[in-house]
UniProtKB/TrEMBL annotation:
PANTHER family listed in its UniProt record: TOXIN, YALI0E33011P
Protein name: Adenylate kinase
Keyword Transferase among record annotations: yes
Signal keyword on record: no
GO molecular function terms noted in the UniProt entry: kinase activity
Keywords: Kinase, Transferase
Organism: Streptomyces longisporus
Domain ATPase AAA-type core per the UniProt entry, residue ranges: 4-40
Length: 172
C-alpha cells in the first residue's frame, strides 16, 4: 500500500479514514476537494490535472476520492490500493447531515476558504442533497471500476459496514 485511493459516497468517511491510514503508514495524505476547490465562491481549479499529476508523481500518497471526472482514470491507473467505504444510506445520511449542519452553524471554512451556508442547503449541489441523489450511481461506478480489467492490478478492500473499517484499521 503505497498509492491509495479511499473511495465511497459523499459522507461515508473517506477523509477520516484517509487521515488515519496516512498517520499509521506515514503516507502523505491529499484531500481531493482541496485540490479541486481553490478559491472563494467554490472556484474550481482550472489546472486540476496538473495538481493531481504532481501528487501522483510522488512515490507514496493517499487520496480521499474516486476522483473528479477529468482525473478519475489517471488516479485509478496510478493507485495500487483502493479502500472502498461501501456504506448504505442509513450510515451515510446521518453523517453528512451532522457534518453539514456543524459546518453551517459554526461557519467552518473548508476548501478554498469557502463555507457551507443556510442558503446553500437549497442547492442540488449541497452535500446533503448530493449524497442522497448520487448514492446509487456512485456505488455502481465504484463497483464497475473495481471489476474493470484495466484496474485488475489494484488491491481492493471493500468495507460494507463501519465496524469492518474499524477492525481493519485497528489491525493495520
Amino acid at each position: 500500500m503505497e498509492r491509495i485511493l479511499v473511495v465511497g459516497v459523499t459522507g461515508a468517511g473517506k477523509s477520516t479514514l484517509a487521515r488515519a491510514v496516512s498517520a499509521r503508514l506515514d503516507v502523505p495524505y491529499h484531500e481531493m476537494d482541496a485540490l479541486y476547490f481553490v478559491g472563494p465562491d467554490w472556484a474550481v481549479n482550472e489546472k486540476l490535472g496538473e495538481a493531481v499529476s504532481r501528487v501522483l508523481a510522488e512515490p507514496r500518497w493517499i487520496i480521499d476520492s474516486i476522483g473528479y471526472p477529468e482525473v478519475r482514470d489517471l488516479l485509478w491507473e496510478q493507485a495500487d490500493t483502493v479502500l472502498w467505504l461501501d456504506y448504505g444510506r442509513r450510515v451515510v445520511m446521518p453523517r453528512v447531515l451532522r457534518r453539514s449542519l456543524r459546518r453551517t452553524v459554526t461557519r467552518e471554512r473548508v476548501f478554498g476558504g469557502n463555507q457551507e451556508t443556510w442558503a446553500g442547503w437549497l442547492s442540488r449541489e449541497h452535500p446533503v442533497w448530493w449524497a442522497w441523489s448520487q448514492h446509487a450511481g456512485r456505488r455502481s461506478e465504484i463497483a464497475r471500476r473495481t471489476s474493470d480489467p484495466r484496474f485488475a492490478p489494484l488491491h481492493t478492500v471493500r468495507f460494507p459496514h463501519p465496524d469492518d473499517t474499524a477492525a481493519w484499521l485497528a489491525s493495520l
